[in-house]
Write a structure and sequence with these properties.
45% of the residues lie in helices and 25% in strands. The protein is of the alpha/beta class. Belongs to the LysR transcriptional regulatory family.
Length: 289
C-alpha cells in the first residue's frame, strides 16, 4: 500500500470530490483518479459512493480512514524522529558486568534525564561476546575491557580500573604470591578480560594454582571467594561496591598487570543515530576514574 495513495484517499474523503482533492494537493485530476482506482483495486473494494452531489465513504472507506490516520501519523512521527533535533528512538547498549554495576548507574540516570525520548535497552556480557555483538549489529555500542584493536571498531576511553587480587579473611593471608600454588583460582568464564589478565600475570610469574574454578556470574564468584573457595583478580571498585570491603583481603599486583581500561566501542561504518551521537559525546565529556 502506497503512502501517497493514502494521502490522496484522505484528501478525497475530506473534500468529497476528486476535483477539489486534486486542487488541494496541487495534483492533476487524472493522477488523483488513477491513485484512487489503484487503491480500490489493491484492497478489492470500493471506498466511495459516487453520486451527483459528490463522493461519500462506503463502509470500507470509513474503516480505512482510521487506519490511514494512524499510518500517516506514524509517518510524520518517523520523519520527526529522523530529522528532529532531540535524540529519540531505540538505543541498545551492552556492558561488562563490572561497569554495569559500578560505573554506569549514575551515568545512565543522567543521560535519560537529559534525553527522555530515547528508548534504552541494556544488555550485559563478556568483553569478547560484546565485541561480537557490536560487529554483528546486535547492539549499537558496548562498554568493554580494553585494549580493543579491530579495523571495524571505534573506541572511546570511559575509565581506568585498578585490578587487585582478593582472598577470604577466614584463611591466613597470602605471605607471597607463591602461596597461590596451593590455592584455587576463581574466574569468570572464557571471554572475561580479567580472567585473561590474571592468567597472563600468573604465567609470567611461573605460578600455577592447584585448581581452577569458573563461574558465570559475578555474585557467585565473589560469594565463593568470601567463603574461602579460592583467590580471584578483580577491579578494586567493583569489590568495594559488591563486598563493601568486608570479608576479603586485598593484594596489589605488579604494575604491568594492575590496570585496565574500560572502553566504549561501536562500529566505524554504522550510521550513528542522534541518540548514539549524544551518548558518545556524554562519555567524552564525563570520563570516569
Amino acid at each position: 500500500m502506497d503512502i501517497g495513495d493514502l494521502v490522496v484517499f484522505k484528501a478525497i474523503a475530506k473534500e468529497q470530490s476528486v476535483t477539489k482533492a486534486a486542487h488541494s494537493l496541487n495534483y492533476v485530476q487524472s493522477n488523483v483518479t488513477m491513485r484512487l482506482k489503484r487503491l480500490e483495486k489493491e484492497l478489492g473494494t470500493p471506498l466511495f459512493h459516487r453520486n451527483a452531489r459528490g463522493m461519500t465513504l462506503t463502509s470500507s472507506g470509513k474503516t480505512l480512514v482510521g487506519y490511514a490516520d494512524r499510518l500517516l501519523s506514524l509517518m510524520t512521527e518517523a520523519k520527526q524522529a529522523m530529522q528532529g533535533d532531540e535524540p529519540r528512538g531505540p538505543l541498545t547498549i551492552g556492558a561488562i558486568e563490572t561497569a554495569a554495576a559500578v560505573r554506569l548507574p549514575a551515568y545512565l540516570t543522567s543521560f535519560m534525564r537529559r534525553f527522555p525520548a530515547v528508548d534504552l535497552t541494556f544488555l550485559s556480557g563478556t568483553t569478547e561476546s560484546l565485541i561480537q555483538d557490536v560487529l554483528h549489529h546486535r547492539v549499537d555500542g558496548a562498554f568493554v575491557t580494553g585494549p580493543v584493536d579491530h579495523p571495524e571498531i571505534d573506541t572511546f576511553l570511559f575509565c581506568e580500573e585498578e585490578l587487585v587480587l582478593i582472598s577470604d579473611q577466614e584463611h591466613s593471608p597470602l605471605e607471597s604470591f607463591q602461596d597461590i600454588h596451593a590455592r584455587t583460582l576463581v574466574t569468570l568464564q572464557a571471554g572475561c578480560m580479567f580472567r585473561r589478565r590474571v592468567e597472563q600475570w600468573l604465567a609470567a610469574e611461573g605460578i600455577y594454582p592447584k585448581k581452577h574454578v569458573e563461574f558465570s556470574t559475578l555474585e557467585g564468584l565473589i560469594g565463593c571467594v568470601k567463603s574461602g573457595l579460592g583467590v580471584a583478580l578483580f577491579a578494586r571498585a567493583y569489590i568495594e561496591h559488591a563486598a563493601r570491603g568486608e570479608g576479603v583481603h586485598y593484594y596489589e599486583i605488579p604494575d604491568a598487570f594492575s590496570h585496565v581500561s574500560t572502553l566504549f566501542i561501536c562500529r566505524k561504518d554504522e550510521h550513528r543515530s542522534k541518540a548514539l551521537v549524544e551518548w558518545i559525546a556524554a562519555i567524552e565529556q564525563k570520563k570516569e576514574c
